Amino acid sequence: MLFAYVQLRGLPTVRVGELRGPLRLSAIQERKLLNRLAKAGLIVRVWRGLYLVPPRLPLGGKWSPNEALALSTLMANQKGRYQICGPNAFNRYGFDGQMPNRVYAYNDRLSGERTVGALALTLIKVAAARLGDTDQVRTAEGLSAVYSSRVRTLVDAVYDWSRFNSLPRAFGWIRGELAAGRVGAAELVRVTLRYGDVGTIRRMGALLDRAGVATALLRKLERALKPSSSLIAWNPVRPKRGALDRRWGVVWNDRT
After folding, report:
1. Is residue 89 part of a domain?
2. Do β-strands 50-52 and 44-47 pair in parallel, antiparallel, or remain unpaired?
3. Structure pTM?
4. In the beta sheet, which residues pair with residue 135?
5. Is 91 found in the same domain as 144?
6. Percent of the chain whose predicted confidence (pLDDT) is above 70
7. Where would I find the beta strands (DSSP E) of 117-249?
């Protein structure tokens, strides 16, 4: 009855309370029906009282939504925004060949790990101002998945290195993207200033300086830094020992 009802009306979701009138169910009967279908893997619980329903019954197995459907439904329910980031974006843009077994997403509503069907999510709550510089990716089902852009992904690999375990690998990615012309130095500077912190600006400045980037672009990064005698490691996972770069406050503790 439930599937006939939602398919007739083209509903991708159902909420607790929606089925009582049309299907003549009591509150207890509705709850039991939804719980039974969710446990059988025929529908998927997204949030308290909210379930995703497949466009057709899965044949011979359980159904699970893809990341675009799961995240867009979850964020619509929370009145928030998201963008897929980190290891998933590294893989999408060809920086890392490893396919992650979780979906990482910056968003402005939720933090922590959740499971939606067979999909494991790591939700990273950030200020709304830290969302942006994205690409819309069309899925085979005709949905739109929101990814951090290529340039934003590179900047986040430096900014959020401890979460994504992305340094020093990201330095090689950035050099390769610049050499291939897939990203420009001006784009990197713009996005670094918009979404980076002091450590990101220093490391990006040191990298672009060594790459021979135009002085005018380097000065934009310099102007964003306050005078300081503190030093950071170029490679934060190695001991802070090596030659000093006073311009950027970086210790060259690695050859990468």
Report:
1. yes
2. antiparallel
3. 0.94
4. 147
5. yes
6. 100
7. 119-125, 134-138, 144-148, 232-233, 243-245
Query: 71 with 127, same domain?
Result: yes
Q: Provide the terminal-to-terminal Cα distance of the chain, rounded to the nearest Å.
A: 61
The pLDDT tens digits of the residues spanning 181-212 come to 999 999 999 999 999 999 999 999 999 999 99
Confidence of residue 60 (pLDDT cuts 50, 70, 90): confident
> Which positions ≥6 away from 234 have C-beta within 8 Å?
168, 203, 206, 242, 250, 251, 252, 253, 254, 256
Q: What is the mean pLDDT of residues 220-231?
A: 95
Does residue 84 lie in a domain region? yes
- The pLDDT tens digits of the residues spanning 90-111 come to 999 999 999 999 999 999 999 9
Amino acid 2: pLDDT: 84
Q: In what order do the strands lie in the sheet with 119-125?
A: 112-116, 119-125, 103-107, 82-84, 144-148, 134-138
pLDDT in tens, 61-89: 789 999 999 999 999 999 999 999 999 99
Residue 217 belongs to some domain of the structure = no
CA-wise closest residue to 35 among 49, 17, 21: 49
The residue with tokens 């029906």 is 33
**Smallest Cα–Cα separation from 183: which of 93, 53, 75?**
93
Separation between Cα atoms, residue 251 and residue 236, nearest integer Å: 10
**Inter-axis angle of helices 215-223 and 185-195, to 10 degrees?**
0
What domain range is 43 assigned to?
Answer: 2-52
> Which DSSP helix (H) or strand (E) runs through 106?
strand 103-107
Give the number of domains in the chain: 2
What pLDDT score was predicted for residue 221? 98
Residue 166 exposed, middle or buried by CB count within 10 Å (0-12, 13-18, 19+): buried
